[in-house]
Write a structure and sequence with these properties.
This protein is of the alpha+beta class. It has helices at about 5-25, 55-60, 70-80, 210-230, 235-250, 270-290, 295-300, 310-320; strands at about 35-40, 45-50, 65-70, 90, 95, 100-110, 115, 120-125, 130-135, 145-150, 160-165, 170-175, 180-185, 205-210, 255-260, 320-325, 330, 330-345, 350-365, 370-385, 390-410.
């Protein structure tokens, strides 16, 4: 026999150990120090994902088997502000950027979200992962972004850095001697968001007057005015009157002249027109939140929302775009699907009130994962003409429902 009974168990153990070792070798283990450079149209972010046990000495964390999350978070809030410019630096084609610390969280793996905030008060050191976020606002999508990485420890002399814009990612291993990564805006991957064209409001129905009537009125008015002024019309006034009558006869079939009619009401909005207007306005409302400065968001919203509704829209949309279990990261909406827009009545300014239902789809990229977020909304929208443009003048939210929330690792 090729194998004796005594040798079979030993061989099986050897095979099992070999397969286990091979599987372990095939699995990629994340570096204890990971960095992420995320480029969006109006913001760049540098994020850290650190295994606490590997950076205890480097970050001067309290030592022990467990970490007090509140104490460590407060400590890191103070210490990490100096990382920008010392442990990393970012330069675009427009010049260097100053990144500010915006978030410090303990995070943990999540089977659905990939990464979620770890809200335990006491966290075992061996399990603790620290998530840091630094952000810098930019006025327009950059052409190039260069990240210089200098965060290493005496024991850890390499780090994994992933970089890119949502949907297109690269990863590099950086070391103290080779510590620069470069992102390029190839094929106009990032562009400045542009607002949708909103159909113009219906105008008042004009007075379509014939040329013959206009000339006759002008002629008679001229003669009467002269007669009153001089207490008797001169001889040439009659000739002028005859000329006006002749011109009116000649021009009786000429195209009519549309003139403003202050007595007519604006035309009613059709159901199709109401849907087109509502869709464009909703798209523009969500595009306003591409900006990262509050003042820029308000300026963009002002083009689609009436002044008395601006703050309400800002607060409600801002809240709906937050990922609570991701430390407050904000979703970028890339699609709005208007499922229903049923006008129910006309407003006093010839606008309309409509029962609406729409779905938004968006993503947020955070700590190496891109999260998909889909929401459904039911609301009653009021749209009115303001000057020569349509604007949302009221919004009554009836229902908001989160349909789905998924995550995928960017490096996959």
């Amino acid at each position: 026999m090729l194998f004796s009974e005594k040798r079979v168990p030993a061989i099986l153990i050897a095979v099992f150990v070999g397969l286990s070792a091979g599987a372990a070798f095939g699995q990629k283990k994340d570096s204890p120090i990971r960095g992420f450079l995320i480029v969006e149209p109006f913001e760049t972010r540098v994020e850290f994902l650190l295994e606490a046990a590997a950076v205890v000495d480097a970050l001067e964390l309290p030592k022990g088997e467990n970490l007090d999350a509140g104490v460590v978070r407060e400590l890191l809030q103070k210490k990490m502000k100096q990382l920008s410019g010392t442990k990393f630096s970012v330069t675009t084609d427009a010049g260097p950027l100053a990144h500010e610390l915006t978030r410090v969280d303990f995070v943990k793996p999540d089977p659905v979200l990939g990464i979620a905030v770890d809200d335990r008060e006491q966290i075992p050191l061996a399990e603790a992962k620290i998530g840091l976020v630094f952000a810098a606002k930019i006025p327009a999508p950059p052409e190039t972004v260069e990240l210089k990485w200098d965060f290493f420890t005496d024991e850890i002399q390499e780090a994994t850095v992933e970089f890119g814009s949502p949907g297109k990612w690269s990863a590099r291993i950086v070391t103290p001697s080779k510590n620069t990564v470069m992102w390029q805006n190839s094929d106009n991957e990032l562009v400045t968001p542009t607002l949708e064209n909103v159909p113009a409001p219906n105008s008042r129905k004009p007075l379509n007057l014939p040329w013959s009537l206009i000339i006759s009125v002008i002629g008679f008015g001229f003669v009467i005015a002269i007669a009153f002024a001089k207490k008797g019309a001169p001889a040439w006034a009659g000739i002028g009157l005859i000329v006006c009558i002749a011109a009116a006869v000649v021009l009786r079939k000429a195209p009519r002249i549309p003139l403003p009619n202050p007595f007519s009401k604006p035309e009613l909005v059709s159901a199709d027109a109401a849907e087109s207007v509502t869709y464009a306005l909703l798209r523009n409302v969500y595009k306003a939140f591409e900006y990262r400065s509050e003042s820029d968001v308000y300026d963009a919203l002002d083009k689609s929302v009436a002044g008395n509704l601006l703050e309400k829209i800002y607060l409600e949309i801002q809240a709906s775009l937050q990922l609570e279990n991701q430390g407050g990261a904000r979703v970028r909406v890339y699609n709005v699907d208007l499922r229903k827009c049923d006008p129910t009545e006309q407003t006093a300014t010839a606008g309309f009130i409509a029962d609406c239902n729409w779905i938004t789809a968006g993503t947020v990229t955070h700590w190496g994962h891109t999260h998909e977020r889909t929401n459904r909304y039911d609301a009653v929208l009021t749209v009115d003409p303001v000057g020569n443009v349509w604007k949302l003048s009221d919004l009554k939210l009836v229902n908001e429902e989160r349909i789905d929330q998924q995550s995928k690792k960017n490096s996959e």
